[in-house]
Amino acid sequence: MKMIDKLLAQFAYASVTSDGKYYTVAVPKEKLHETASRLRNSALAFDFLMDIVGMDYGDSLGTIYYLSCTQFPAYVIALKTETDDREDPIIPSVSDIWESAGLYEREVHDFLGIRFANNPDMRRLFLRKDWKGYPLRKDYDANPEINPVPLTNENLDDMETVPVIEIHNGLKEEKTYSLFEKGEYVVNFGPQHPATHGVLHLRVSLDGEIIRKIDPNFGYIHRGIEKMSEAYTYPQILHLIDRMDYLSGTIHRHGLCLAVEKGLQLEVPERAHYIRTIIDELTRIASHLLGWGCMAMDMGAITAFVYGMRDREKIMDIFEETCGGRLMANYSVIGGVMNDIHPNFQRKVKEFIPYMRKMLKEHHLLFTGNPIARGRMKDVGYLSKEKAIALGASGPTGRASGWSNDVRKIEPYAAYRHAEFNEILRSDGLTFDRYIIRLDEIAESLKIIEQLIDNIPGGAYAAKTKAIIKLPEGEFHQRVEGARGEFDVYIHSKGDKYPYRVKFRSPSMTLVSALKAIATGTKVADLIMLGGSLDYVVPCIDR
Amino acid sequence: MEVKDICIKNMKYEDFKENEYLENYLKELRANGVNIAIAKLDDLINWGRSNSVWPLTFATSCCGIEFMCLGAARYDFARFGWEVTRNSPRQADVVFCCGTIVHKMAPVLKRLYDQMAEPKYVMAFGSCAIGGGPFKKSYHTVMGVDQIIPVDIYIPGCPPRPDAMIYGMMQLARKIKMQEFFKLPKQPDLSSPDNSDSSENNPETKEKGNRP
Ligand code: SF4
Hints:
The complex is a heterodimer. Helix content of chain A is 39%, strand content 19%.
């Protein structure tokens, strides 16, 4: 008996199902907190909370917690719980077990109206306080007259007053507290600020030059993609997903394709796998180049930004020829790719590899070695490995702290198993590590592309699919490695051509909580640079 | 009739589409007659204005990346004198409204627009800013920025290519060149209550509201 089976056998009250790697554990909500903390503290230590999915099952509301452990990262547990109360649904919070749960629970609260007992912050996350209704409930009334376009800014008091609900020994207590004390010096960054990388609103409390507290405010680009997806067919959803995290849109789109293909049990031609992988890696390079350039620009080096964009244009040219679009490649489709590669594709990519290698050297010379840049990045923004895991800050940020979390290694998908590459890990977790890891990953991606580009097998570039794609009943979960962290797709299907519920894990959301952690106590002048070193994309957070 | 007086360097008249609206505008101007000295002065001022338009860096989502490409080496809008992107609305002449505007952002955009000094222009950039784009069915999207602020130029695409943006910029430059500078709306007096909505007493907004 495997360790995980032994562990799960201890929960007599839970119903456990498994397909070998993915385990589903359903527990009553009274037992949720106990189960969660035992999973966290067991020998397997499920310390990475990937996501919380809020569900509306029709007559009950529920949550699903996706857990993984960093020692054996291929194990995934879906911990489920439900509540029948639709009027005032309350579920115990797990934010004391996993720090990242704080934000996830706020998101579920915002979308479904579930309140989490003992979560220290039960404000809405994306929508304004005066928003009526909970959009992801199935009985939500989307009539625009109920929620017209507001004419005034949100009241700051509404932003600061934090409601909480506490349950101790069966006694329910509701209270509110103010986030900032009277007389605290609070500065607003954003939502319109060139250096927040999108429309993020940070409220920063300062003590002289030192940051005491940061309160991120989301929702300025909340477009309701998850709700819209419920009324769209799968091929239609693909177009929305590109526009969420537009810098690694191709990779995320690949993730959704894989999830649907998993459901359909569709065999994707090997050629498509190779092409997708190459395109994904090119996207990663483009994204890292932009991230690198923007971070340098945040530190005042505009030249680096222009250099980064110049190299990125080369990739955009390759995309344009093969995919038809520059930024929005719209390339992966269910079953393969949209069309075959352009005759010039291989030649251009092969030209690009030595060019980029040469340019990487130049970038290092220009910026990495620059004493001013070195001095600014030195010794600021420390994120420990434990903290990164607790916050769920995956991707390059986590790897810069020494957390091995590359999904391409954990669960190789597409053609990654045919390529040899290293997962770049650093141990210090400082700003400089997060900076340099991006450039190193570009070199690694070039290596992957180099191995694949000459070996693209012949054959069809896409499998045949039915005109109307209906997913069989069930739940499908797929992880991919986006440019800024793990991107997960969760699909709940009822056998229709529309999904019943789709949920995307946003890698950027956890990065903002990492910003909160690393920026507290530093100088306000470093805040922008620290944000740049995390390289989050706000529309991906807001969805 | 050709828009003779309004020439944009390196771009021929035939290369522009949608000339009709400018032609009508010019016809109207000519019919009313302008003092020759003022007209000459107008030309001079507008020549300067149209070649140094300062955009506000305002990008909410994907289209903003193409805007960044526009600012970088290959497309380089510095060639046209547009490169001084300002981070404060008080120093900006034009908002490139790049990206989706949602309910929570709408009052912020309105406020930014109100803070800009006259004469000011708005470019709706990408299908989201024009009419909601791919998020038309969403509960939280504003169906086009023209619901909140008047728009001068619409640039379709999802996202528009940087070349399309340059075309839009040229169109705006033509519009600027054509205006009578001294008759442009002045900064409204925000202290008096009936002037609180600057777009209402702006004679141009009515015309701006008409989509081509
Ligand atoms: S028009 Fe398209 S690319 Fe532009 S912001 Fe909207 S979705 Fe993004």
